[in-house]
Amino acid sequence: MDRIILGQKVNVGKEVLIEGPPLEAFRFQGGRVGSIVTLTDFGGNDFRGTVLSLSDERASVLVFEAFLSSTESSVEIILLQALPEKERMELIIQKVTELGVSAILPFKSKRSISLEERDAKQKKSHRWQEIAVKAVQQSRRAKVPRVEPYRSFQEALEGCREEALKLLLWEEEGEPLRKVLRRYLPKKVYVMVGPEGGFTEEEVKSAKDRGFIPIKLGQRILRTETAAITLVGILQYELGDLS
Questions:
Q1: Do both 109 and 228 map to the same domain?
Q2: Average pLDDT over residues 119-141
């Protein structure tokens, strides 16, 4: 569980106790005395509170703010990201979490670095979920996106079986994103972003066979982290809760 959902009414200015399964979500988000947490009451309303005390059985939270609307987007966005080099994956996870993605799935494409090669230089992949949790806390989201296990390109495609709009960023022959979005009003979107060298034609064909639509973002070539963050932002503006 990654969302602190309480089976009780929550009021601003009052203390609430977190026990049982919600306490597991609280611990998953790194909650501690003095930290700020987002709570959702039984009616689906979101609140912010300060942790006053914490024990093995319960946490006490003083609620100080109610959100006028939900902190979660109405559209579910799953980012499939070819693993980039250096610190770029951490940046992508942080920023797309702030923008409201539901899940992040790192994968190996033909032209991307492998996880083994990257971790051989500096092992940081174990921190990916922690980065998402911290970005949730900073952005006041109620839900932590899943950072899925690293996998191959084909395994990434096979995980996209549900009914959804499926987009693959391909700068060579992709259709302008604006035109594609005029045809769809999806509640779920899979977004596949490649490495610096782009996807191969074979990879694009495999993705198209799985229902992915090749798209592009204008005529300039963007770095993979810029492309991922920009694309998620555009989708949230056009389909989600950015206004």
A1: yes
A2: 82
